[in-house]
Amino acid sequence: MNRSPFRGMCLGALLTLLLLSAGASASKIPGIPDGCSTRCHQSKVREQFVHGPVKADDCIACHQPVGGEHPKDRGVFKLAGEREKLCYLCHEGKAVKRVVHPPVAEGDCLACHDPHQSPYAMQLKALGSELCFKCHDQAAFRHKHGHAPVASGNCLGCHDPHQSDNRSLLKGDGAGLCFRCHDKKLAAGASIHKPIAEGECVRCHAPHGSDWPRLLRNTFPEPFYLPYARDNFALCFDCHNKNLAQDRRTDTLTGFRNGDFNLHYRHVNKSDRGRSCKTCHDPHAARQQRLIKEQIPGFGDWEIPIRYTKTETGGTCVVGCHKPKSYDRVRPVTNP
User: Which stretches of the chain are assigned E, i.e. beta strand?
Assistant: First the structure.
């Protein structure tokens, strides 16, 4: 059977096209510089979160060829920069503020981030506080009462992982940080507790956790009435005079006195029904002077009112639990 020369030419051209097509499929994919992760290094793109250059198969953005045949020869690639200098080829500098996280300051971005992929966002090597506890002592954060962000593993609720202009990499300064979550009304009033006024909530509260309720740094019992003992007022006495309610007569220990009769002693220093400091005083702020509350728990649903008027040398209390009484440090008052 005779074959047409033209038919043979067509078959040859078709074979050539097939061979060229096969060669093209073995070459680099158009638009992708090297095709590393699509050919040999698929293990670098298996996790949910993949570094941008890796995901784009642009390995040479970080690994630059310096000659030789890969993978037969060793050392045919070098990093485009050393340590943080490599990261800063794309990312903004993270060590320009006053306080810098030690791994960042040391250029050790890989202490927290995987350069290729991770099951966690931002290519982090672990999630939440689990990552922090790779360096920080977890035992130091175990307390009976834990601060909610710490208990939930959300260290970044308060701290920046890279840098900050505030101490301890905090995201805010003093009470400004606390008021990102807590009500600012805690620091509003005619009188404000000095630590609150100065933005130092941590003088009374431990920011990570405490063995006392409300993250307090020392004892501050819940009961309205309690026997007098210095230990029962330990939190207050960390700053205030420990002898405040010790002596029945004084002209130095307290300004709450009628002449030299110590009215703190009268209210607090009792063997069974001494008043707690918070019976009359708000530990944060109050609309009356001297942190005096406007009302306190009474009987059933009744809230006992307190109306306090401060004078230059004393004051007057009009309360629901006893008749109005006044005091004066210079001219003692005789109350009915």
Answer: 49-50, 63-65, 77-79, 99-100, 117-118, 145-146, 163-164, 191-192, 209-210, 225-226, 257-258, 261-262, 274-275, 285-286, 295-297, 303-310, 314-319, 325-328
What DSSP letter does each residue of 196-232 carry, written as one string? HHTT-GGGTB-SSEESSGGGBSS-----SEE---GGG
SS3 272: coil
- pLDDT, greater one: 253 or 273: 253
Answer whether residue 32 shows pLDDT above 80.
no
Q: What is the CA radius of gyration of the chain?
A: 36
Question: For residue 39, what are its two tokens?
Answer: 């050919």
Residue with tokens 């991770």, as numbered in its chain:
118
What pLDDT shows up at residue 24? 39
Per-residue pLDDT band at 152 (split at 50, 70, 90): very high
Considering only CA atoms, which of 172, 56, 58, 47 is closest in space to residue 122? Answer: 47
Q: Tell me, rounded to whole angstroms, the distance of Cα 94 from its chain centroid.
A: 19
Answer for the pair 316, 325: CB distance below 8 angstroms, yes or no.
yes
Whether the CB-CB separation of 278 and 181 falls below 8 Å is answered with no
Question: How many C-beta atoms surround the C-beta of residue 201 within 10 A?
Answer: 21
Helices vs. strands in the chain: H and E counts, helices first: 11, 18
- The candidate with the shortest Cα–Cα distance to 167, out of 100, 222, 82, is 100
Residue with token string 């006053």? 98
201-238 tens-digit pLDDT: 999 999 999 999 999 999 988 888 888 888 888 999 99
Model-level pTM? 0.81
pLDDT digits (tens, 9 = 90+) for 5-27: 544 444 444 444 444 444 433 33
